[in-house]
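Comment thread on ticket #2218

A.B. wrote:
> Attaching the input chain for the structure job we discussed in standup.
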Amino acid sequence: MEVYLNNAATSWPKPEVVYRAVDAFLRRHGASQGRGGFRRSREATSIIEDCRRKLAEFLNAPDPSRIIFTKNCSEALNTAIKGVLRRGDHVITSSMEHNSVWRPLKTLEKKGVISLTEIKCGQRGDIDLDAVKDAFQPRTRLLVCTHASNVTGTIFPLAELAELAHGHNTLLLVDAAQTAGVLPLDIDEMGIDLLAVSGHKGLLGPQGTGALYIASDLILETLMEGGTGSSSLLPFQPVELPGRFEVGTHNGPGLAGLGAALDFIITTGVNEIRTKEHRLTGLVIDRLLSIPGVVVYGPQDPDQQVGVVSFNILDVNPEDVGSVLDEVYNIMVRTGLHCAPQAHRTIGTIGRGTVRVSPSFFNTEDEIIYFLDAVREIASQAGSARAVKSEKSDYITGYKIQQTSPCFTDGSRVRVVASLSRDISELFPYLNAVLRGDFDQERMLFTCSYGERPIVLQAQQVTVGKTEDMATAGEILDAVVAILNKVAAKRETIVPTTLPQFQLSPFDIYKYFPRTNCRDCGEVTCLAFAAGVIQGQHTLEQCPQLKEEKKAVLEEKLADYFAHLLPKGDELEL
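C.D. wrote:
> Ran it. Output below, let me know if you need it in another format.
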């Protein structure tokens, strides 16, 4: 089963009518809007203007000419922000904004054009209306906020925010990237002055489509200038909309697809779409909250959020969770900071971000259950790792597993990083009495191996690679701790190693490989490939970029290296 759950970035799949509309435009029309009086150009113009009319009706915008097509929501937001603000203006925004709001505002602030107030939202992503009310100043020109967070899904109260803004003679700009096509939007009723939407998310259109609504009483400066297909004698941009802001050739196939997507949404009904996403989102939240070790961020209530849910598994890097979901379960989610660092600062996840799952109207309950079962399995492995304890001793009392990650070739296997209860680096010179390894005095590392499992010892850290499961990792870590305790107890009788016994470490081997992404080695970087060679997962012949003279030297060194790392007899009992 393949499951796509990254609809907050781009919705997929699209309605069948979208594919047909894009194909038909390219095959039957193909001309540019307003760039010719011939039939195909007129047809292209008609299709694009029909899409504009549909979007205006869908948003209840009184004048379709005030709908400006852009290539995405980011361009729409930049057009609004940089078009409406003047030197000396003050702007209010929230801490849950996407970088497409945050970066333009911070750039204008850095240039001394505007002053900026950021309203710190609650840990669930909710905005404090009293804080917004207190933030208005005599020069406040713009209140800009998201309709729903792309990190937590939290829905903002637009009607109340519009009332506050207009009560202080301030414009309201809304980022509706996550809500257009999912929640009802009524520009007139909600009192929105500027509205930016994405065409390829909830509106179900192709990538490369977006739009900006500009209220009838607003005149904005242009973001760029160029050909508009009309008023060509003018040395400056025309004032008439939409041509003033639609520079260059339109994305005809994309807008044809967006028009078809709007037909699908209108026929299906936004309320019907919202009802299904609400049900799937509620299922995700309820089941995630029931899994031990899983932390869910945001409102945790589908009534208060759109289909965007962020979560983490304790002690597991979210990127690793995403990799395992992809490589093992064929489930597509997004991890990291989601282009919204301020939002992650707000909810306390700025360090590594979160795993974000975003279902859509086209997902099924079976797909959601499959995803939840996968998360439960991953969390269970992490939980068993956290439960592993070593026996107490005089020297090391235990360890705690702090990180797991999938291997390069088999996502069902893991590497484990464990923190020890004390600094063990003083034992490194003595370890060769028990382990055949590589002591690197400069880096203070001791590297050894058991079978195909590399073990790297650092000051208060043990890294075990390529284990079958968390139980195996726990057994290996227990054995390593036992060996360290044994060496600590007998070091008075052991002759220390004062120099590195072997000159090739896993870190030194990297110098034989190119430092850039390798076009011929698949999807891994050459550094990752080198690590795979060390761990027996790749062969040198698999890297065409490795020069022959270096390959010969490296083959000889590797042969000696792996022979050197074999454990001595039965002394290493793992």
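A.B. wrote:
> Thanks. Noting for the ticket: The two ends are 37 Å apart (CA to CA).
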